[in-house]
C-alpha cells in the first residue's frame, strides 16, 4: 500500500493534531493501538504546559514522546525496556527534537530519577504490563512532584467480569488480556493507596472504534499485526473492550 492510501485509512477527525503526522511513521513505530491518538486523547484531559518535564514510561518507539514534545512543548524522557535508546534517538533526531526528547533504557521498577523530578508522568499502552501490582503506584508516584499529574491509556474492559473470557471473545482471548481492566477498577486500584486523587477514569469515547480502525489499516497495509485483533473488536463492537484512560494527581 502506498503512503497516501495509508493516510486515508488513518483519517480520524477525533484526533486533529495527530492528523499532521504521516500514517507510515505511526504504523512503522506502533506497537499496539495507535500511540499518537492515545497520547492526544490523554492530553485532552491532562494539562501539559510548555517546559514541563514529562516521563513517558513504556514509550516503545517513542512516537508518543515525539508527539507530546512537538505539540505541547514539553521535555520528555522516553523510557522503555524492549526498544533501545539507540533506535529511539534516531527517530528523535529525524524529528529534530534531540534537545527535548531523551531516550533511555529503563525497567519500570528501577527508574534512574530523583524523587519529584517530573511535572507529569504518562504511560501509553504500557502501564498494565507492570502497574497492576498493588504496591507499584507507591514506587512510581514518587517520581512526580506533589500536585503533579499521572496519566495512562491502555486497552481495557468496560466492566470487570466474574469469569474471563466473556464467551463471545473466547476464540480470540489470550491469557495476558487478564491485565486489561475497567476505568472503575483502575480508579479503585490507585485511590485505595491514598497517594493520589483520581480526576478522570473513563473509556475513550469511541476508543474501540479507533482501535479497530487502526488494526484494519495495519492489516490492509501489511497483514500484521491487526487481523485477529480486528476480528475480535468487530465481534465485540464495544460491549466489552475499549481503551481505558486515567488521570490523577499526587497528593
Ligand atoms: C505494547 S508496547 C507499547 C509501546 C508504545 N507505548 C506504544 O503504544 O506503541 C508496551 C511497552 O511497554 C514496555 N514495557 C513493558 N514492561 C516494561 C517494564 N517492566 N519496564 C519498562 N517498560 C516496559 C515495553 O518495552 C513496550 O515497549
Automatic annotation (TrEMBL):
<dbReference type="InterPro" id="IPR041698">
    <property type="entry name" value="Methyltransf_25"/>
</dbReference>
<dbReference type="GO" id="GO:0008168">
    <property type="term" value="F:methyltransferase activity"/>
</dbReference>
<keyword id="KW-0489">Methyltransferase</keyword>
<feature type="domain" description="Methyltransferase">
    <location>
        <begin position="54"/>
        <end position="148"/>
    </location>
</feature>
<dbReference type="Pfam" id="PF13649">
    <property type="entry name" value="Methyltransf_25"/>
</dbReference>
<dbReference type="InterPro" id="IPR029063">
    <property type="entry name" value="SAM-dependent_MTases_sf"/>
</dbReference>
<keyword id="KW-0808">Transferase</keyword>
<dbReference type="GO" id="GO:0032259">
    <property type="term" value="P:methylation"/>
</dbReference>
<dbReference type="InterPro" id="IPR050447">
    <property type="entry name" value="Erg6_SMT_methyltransf"/>
</dbReference>
<protein>
    <submittedName>
        <fullName>Methyltransferase domain-containing protein</fullName>
    </submittedName>
</protein>
Amino acid at each position: 500500500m502506498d503512503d497516501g492510501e495509508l493516510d486515508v485509512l488513518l483519517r480520524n477527525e477525533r484526533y486533529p493534531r495527530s492528523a499532521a503526522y504521516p500514517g507510515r511513521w505511526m504504523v512503522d513505530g506502533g506497537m499496539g493501538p495507535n500511540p499518537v491518538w492515545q497520547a492526544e486523547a490523554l492530553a485532552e484531559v491532562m494539562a501539559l504546559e510548555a517546559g514541563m518535564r514529562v516521563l513517558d514510561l513504556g514509550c516503545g518507539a517513542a512516537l508518543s514522546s515525539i508527539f507530546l514534545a512537538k505539540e505541547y512543548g514539553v521535555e520528555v524522557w522516553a523510557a522503555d525496556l524492549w526498544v533501545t535508546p539507540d533506535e529511539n534517538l534516531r527517530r528523535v533526531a529525524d524529528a529534530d527534537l534531540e534537545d527535548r526528547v531523551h531516550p533511555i533504557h529503563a525497567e519500570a521498577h528501577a527508574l534512574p530519577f530523583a524523587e519529584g523530578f517530573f511535572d507529569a508522568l504518562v504511560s501509553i499502552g504500557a502501564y498494565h504490563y507492570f502497574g497492576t501490582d498493588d504496591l507499584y503506584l507507591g514506587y512510581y508516584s514518587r517520581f512526580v512532584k506533589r500536585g503533579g499529574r499521572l496519566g495512562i491509556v491502555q486497552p481495557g474492559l468496560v466492566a470487570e467480569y466474574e469469569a474471563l473470557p466473556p464467551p463471545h471473545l473466547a476464540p480470540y482471548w489470550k491469557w495476558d488480556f487478564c491485565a486489561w481492566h475497567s476505568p472503575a477498577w483502575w480508579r479503585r486500584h490507585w485511590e485505595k493507596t491514598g497517594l493520589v486523587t483520581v480526576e478522570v477514569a473513563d473509556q475513550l469515547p469511541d476508543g474501540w472504534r479507533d482501535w479497530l480502525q487502526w488494526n484494519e489499516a495495519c492489516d490492509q497495509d501489511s497483514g500484521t499485526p491487526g487481523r485477529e485483533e480486528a476480528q475480535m473488536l468487530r465481534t465485540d463492537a464495544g460491549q466489552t473492550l475499549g481503551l481505558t484512560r486515567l488521570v490523577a494527581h499526587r497528593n
